[in-house]
Amino acid sequence: MEKYDRTAGAVLVLASAGVVLAMAHHPTGLHSGALGQIVHGVLIVLIGITAYGLFHFALRQGVARPAVLAGVVAYGISLFGNVGAATINGFAVPAMAAHDGIDHQLFIVTWELNQALANVAVVATGAAFLLWSIGLLRQSGWMAKTIALLGLAAGVAPVLLLGFGAVRMNVAGAIILYTMQAAWVLLVGLYLASGRFEADRALNASDGM
After folding, report:
1. Any idea which of 6-15, 139-148, 182-191 has the lowest mean pLDDT?
2. What is the average pLDDT value for the chain, to the nearest integer?
3. CB–CB of 160/122 below 8 Å?
4. What is the pLDDT of residues 146-183, one digit of tens each?
5. Contacts by 46-52 with C-beta closer than 8 Å and gap 24+?
């Protein structure tokens, strides 16, 4: 399976950069037109691509290990939240806005649904990063341990910022939180693509870990 590390790593590097770029072009307002659909459509694709790379990472860590498997479950929940939130804002809301005389209360409902799903996604993603980083701490090599420590931060910090109300899941807040999470995904991608992951696994084996 190690022969696919570079592919998964490259996917994660490109996807993490793509998420930040897409969020930088995220429109505001109800009448975002085609741009809103394009941005959210691209984000949904990038979410799936990121999941491919991270699930490969989980398989390489050993998905039978409880913490790694729990991370996969948590990230699966985050996929539901992220895709749901993007579908509401990117496609359902613009379609509603195109109708004349639609009740404003419906937009409040859709906004609250979007926020609930987005919040769930941030917390679930944080849990996944935390669980995968705990597993990575067992790996030999300075790069593995550095990424693990940064993963703990990337898992906890966005949840704390959201929980204490320091940021909200509006466009500005989402850019901050998604960038923090994308930064760790980028590091994992570089770790896999560099071949260091397999080298550290070999070092673990030689040490009898």
Report:
1. 139-148
2. 91
3. no
4. 999 999 999 999 999 999 999 999 999 999 999 999 99
5. 46/15, 46/18, 46/19, 46/22, 47/79, 47/82, 47/83, 47/86, 48/79, 49/11, 49/14, 49/15, 49/18, 50/11, 50/12, 50/15, 50/16, 50/19, 50/185, 51/75, 51/79, 52/8, 52/11
Q: pTM value?
A: 0.92
Closest CA to 158 of 107, 120, 193, 132: 120
Both tokens assigned to 113: 């649904």
Domain-wise residue ranges, the chain: 2-207
Give the per-residue SS3 of 128-158: HHHHHHHHHCCCCCHHHHHHHHHHHHHHHHH
**How many alpha carbons lie under 13 Å from residue 65 in its C-beta half-sphere?**
16
| Residue 4 per-residue DSSP state | G
C-alpha span between 165 and 96 (Å, rounded): 29
Please give the span between the terminal C-alpha atoms of the chain, in angstroms, as a whole number: 20
Closest alpha carbon to 119 in 149, 150, 77: 77
- Name 64's Cβ contacts closer than 8 Å, sequence gap at least 6: none
Residue with the bigger pLDDT between 57 and 94: it is 57
Assess whether pLDDT exceeds 70 at residue 29. no
Please check the confidence at residue 140 and state whether its pLDDT lies above 90: no
d(C-alpha 203, C-alpha 209), whole Å: 9
